[in-house]
Design a protein that fits this description.
With 334 residues, this protein is α/β, with parallel strands linked by helices. It has 13 helices and eleven strands. The protein folds into two domains: 5-97, Serine Threonine Protein Phosphatase 5, Tetratricopeptide repeat; 113-329, Rossmann fold (3-Layer(aba) Sandwich), CATH 3.40.50. 44% of the residues are buried.
Length: 334
């Protein structure tokens, strides 16, 4: 199945929509020539049919017709400047250039449409273990500092369905979560583990947030950001002195940032260290770690725990000594 086959947008004509379904059937049988012919006929009838153009680009890309695939993807971006299907990412890869970030509309649509099955796929099919690894690293860092792994205020960036929140809840007096996808936030709210959840872009949320946090977490979220400098700088502004930010990312052998075939960003260790230094964050932990498997192989990744310089504030030391709220007593607020 093509990467974004589930993200088809209706043409407004049922018979034309059915043609795209037929095209998928032909492709599944290996008949790429008939698939391309059918998609081109469909586009002649409905030149504004976004999903047909996108699928045509994918099939042409698969068959090695690079220039024609680029033309199809450019048409998609023209028809939909928000780029719900992520055609700009495909273009960047084909044109061998760095994309201008990940289109928010693409990320939102991708996760909204997969929210109901996301968690099961991640845990059962991909053996996902990111939250457990992050909690262990945070507890290890606290122990090395001879401190208790308890936190007054915790922020879960890109909280998704709440897997990270569920793992860290017993260590947090107050737990907030933010995610770009309303569908994912709905799943997280249903678990009743967050004191507050919000729908929004990560950096924009931090820019508007007034409070500070003792711990900020991002479990496999920064793979959708091309540059870690802005988000780490924004996080730093909301960390108390001595506060921690812990995250997992995908990585590669180089030092910079690349977009790999799965349309996620992989960050080199050098990029992480440079972004941490620019944000005036100290590296407490930066180690190789794989949080999932794909196609039977571990996905190369990094686990990082960074800290804001300075001793923990008196306010935080006093309040962090209070009993930590249990997960069952957490009340979600929209």
């Amino acid at each position: 199945m093509l990467a974004n086959a589930s993200l088809s947008l209706s043409s407004g004509d049922f018979s034309l929509d059915r043609r795209v379904d037929w095209a998928r059937g032909l492709l599944a049988r290996g008949d790429t020539a008939s698939t391309i012919d059918l998609l081109r006929e469909t586009i002649e009838t409905a030149p504004g049919f976004l999903a047909a153009w996108f699928m045509l680009g994918e099939v042409l890309e698969r068959t090695g017709e690079r220039d024609e695939a680029i033309g199809a993807y450019r048409r998609v971006v023209t028809l939909d400047p928000e780029d719900k299907l992520g055609a700009s990412l495909r273009l960047a890869r084909l044109e061998k250039r760095k994309p201008e970030g990940m289109p928010p509309a693409y990320v939102r649509m991708l996760f909204d449409q997969n929210a109901s099955r996301f968690e099961n796929d991640l845990l059962q099919r991909l053996s996902y273990r990111g939250p457990q690894m992050l909690r262990a690293a945070v507890e290890r860092t606290a122990k090395a500092r001879k401190k208790r792994a308890r936190f007054l205020r915790v922020l879960d960036l890109g909280c998704g369905t709440g897997l990270m929140g569920a793992e860290i809840r017993e260590l947090a007096n107050d737990l907030s979560g933010v995610d770009l996808s309303p569908g994912m936030i709905s799943q997280a709210q249903a678990k009743e583990i967050y004191d507050r959840v919000a729908v929004g872009d990560l950096v924009e949320f931090l820019d508007e947030e007034e409070g500070d946090f003792d711990l900020v977490l991002a479990a496999d979220v920064f793979t959708y950001l091309d540059d870690l400098h802005p988000v780490l700088a924004a996080v730093r502004e909301h960390l108390v002195p001595g506060g921690l930010v812990a995250f997992t990312i995908e990585t590669h052998r180089g030092g910079g940032v690349v977009l790999h075939e799965a349309l996620r960003f992989a960050h080199g260790e050098k990029h992480v260290r440079e972004a941490a230094k620019a944000a005036r964050l100290d590296v407490a932990v930066l180690e190789r770690a794989s949080t999932r498997t794909e196609k039977g192989k571990p996905v190369p990744g990094l686990l990082a725990v960074l800290s804001r310089r300075g001793a923990q504030s008196r306010r935080n030391t006093r309040l962090a000594s209070r009993p930590v709220r249990s997960a069952s007593s957490a009340v979600p607020r929209p």
